[in-house]
Amino acid sequence: MGDDPLYKRILIKLSGESLTGPDSYGIDPDTVESLCHQLARLQRAGIEMGLVIGGGNIFRGLRASRAGMDRVTADNMGMLATVINALALQDRLEKLGVQTRVMSAVRMDVFCERYIRRRATRHLEKGRLIILAAGTGNPFFTTDTAAALRAVEVGAQLILKATRVDGVYSADPEVDTSATFLPDISYLEVLTRELKVMDAASIALCMENTIPIRVFNLNGVDNLYRAGMGEQVGTLVH
After folding, report:
1. By residue range, what is the domain housing residue 35?
2. What's the burial of 237, exposed, middle or buried (CB within 10 Å: 0-12/13-18/19+)?
3. Is residue 124 part of a domain?
4. Measured between alpha carbons, how far is 51 from 130 in angstroms, rounded to an integer?
5. What local confidence, expressed as pLDDT, does residue 88 receive?
6. Is pLDDT above 70 for 2?
7. Is residue 16 part of a domain?
8. Residue pair 209/155 in contact by the 8 Å Cβ criterion
9. pLDDT class of 1 with cuts at 50, 70, 90
10. Domain membership flag for residue 189
């Protein structure tokens, strides 16, 4: 593939766990460094990027609610964790010369901007990478749903969904060793087969607005950069 990106504007969905590196908790500096270098390369290629980050490396609201915590309280704590991750990414990106804005779905004026669609779009037009924190700002909605919603709002042409496996399989490859890799799959097939790509609300929103989703293994060498440039890495859901 050449040096010209296939997409002008993309939305990247990273889990909080993607920042942990070899550990199971927290933020690993080397892992953040590798991610940010790939993001910087994509920006230099002229791609406008939004990034939605999860918070599971610090706090998982759903797990806490299953253990007895009030679900709204647990989800609110999870949203706060995403802001911590967003600030960590911003710090490293700006040290690499990437102009960024952290935009939160809930008001946190001391730390970051409030998410406003028109302002977010304007940042993208000016070449700034926007890191979208605090999910949708509402409990009971995942950061996958936030990624799909923000992609629609800012007019992204593609969602990149980073995972720990090579793409979409016929079953969970970490559980079922006979699962087969699917390089290409439709939204409807993901929904009817209940494949764990993103939650059903996210898939339905992408299907309604015809935004393709590329699911790929974040741990592969330069996979984030390659997927962002439009290479056939992982699985395309469309």
Report:
1. 9-237
2. buried
3. yes
4. 6
5. 97
6. no
7. yes
8. no
9. very low
10. yes
- Of 194, 199, 187, 202, the C-alpha closest to 170 is 194
Cβ contact 111:125 at 8 Å = no
CATH code, domain carrying 82 = 3.40.1160.10
Please report where in the chains the tokens 């991750």 appear, as a residue: 85
The position carrying tokens 């997927």 is 227
Distances (CA, A) of 52 to 83, 107, 161, 207: 10, 17, 10, 19
Q: Are 24 and 170 in contact (CB under 8 A)?
A: no
Domains: count for the chain: 1
Residue 187 has which token pair? 């939204």
Using an 8 Å Cβ cutoff, are 154 and 120 in contact? yes
Query: Mean per-residue pLDDT for 57-79?
Result: 89
Residue type at position 112: C
pLDDT digit string, tens, across residues 127-174: 999 999 999 999 999 999 999 999 999 999 999 999 989 999 998 888
CA distance linking residue 110 with residue 114, whole number of Å? 10
Q: How far is CA 12 from the centre of its chain?
A: 4
Residue 52 lies in a domain: yes
